[in-house]
């Protein structure tokens, strides 16, 4: 499961930051619309992951349950944390 709460150097992502630097964004859409791929691309583009996973391969960051990998679809809402500039952004990807 993708649940990174620390920087690569071991420090907390929110250490010393005020609440106005925290954002939460919900990604919603019809099944098969590309929500998981969008979250994956956002995490990759921001440098929070080092490889771009694919739903067809079962290698995405947010689809980690064995049933999700087997069926190649999201079953439950996932939360991923990305960093953008000085902000921490919670991405909520609806199944």
What's the SSE blueprint?
Layout: E1 22-27, H1 35-45, H2 66-71, E2 78-84, E3 87-93
Parallel strand pairs: 1-3
Antiparallel strand pairs: 2-3
Write structural notes for this entry.
β2 (78-84) and β3 form a beta hairpin. This protein is of the alpha+beta class and 95 residues long. It starts with 21 loop residues before the first strand and ends with a strand. It has one domain. The chain has helices at residues 35-45, 66-71; strands at residues 22-27, 78-84, 87-93.
Condensed summary:
This protein is of the alpha+beta class and 95 residues long. The protein has one domain (22-89). It has 2 helices and 3 strands; from the N terminus they run βααββ.
**Mass-distribution shape:** elongated
Q: Structural class given helices, strands, pairing?
A: alpha+beta
Largest sheet: 3 strands, mixed
As for the number of domains, it is 1
The helix content, as a percent range, equals 10-25%
> Any idea what the radius of gyration is?
13 Å
Mean pLDDT across residues: 84
Strand content: 15-25%
Question: Could you give the distance between the termini?
Answer: 15 Å
Q: How many E strands? A: 3
Strand order of the largest sheet: 1-3-2
Low-pLDDT stretches are none
Order of helices and strands: EHHEE
Number of helices: 2
């Amino acid at each position: 499961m993708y649940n990174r709460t620390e920087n690569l150097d071991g420090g907390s992502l929110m250490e010393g930051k005020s609440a106005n630097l925290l954002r939460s964004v919900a990604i919603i859409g019809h099944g098969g619309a590309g929500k998981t791929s969008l979250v994956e691309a956002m995490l990759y583009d921001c440098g929070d992951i080092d490889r771009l996973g694919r739903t067809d391969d079962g290698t995405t960051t947010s689809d980690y349950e064995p049933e999700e990998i087997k069926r190649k679809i999201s079953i439950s809402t996932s939360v991923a944390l990305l960093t953008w500039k000085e902000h921490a952004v919670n991405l909520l990807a609806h199944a």
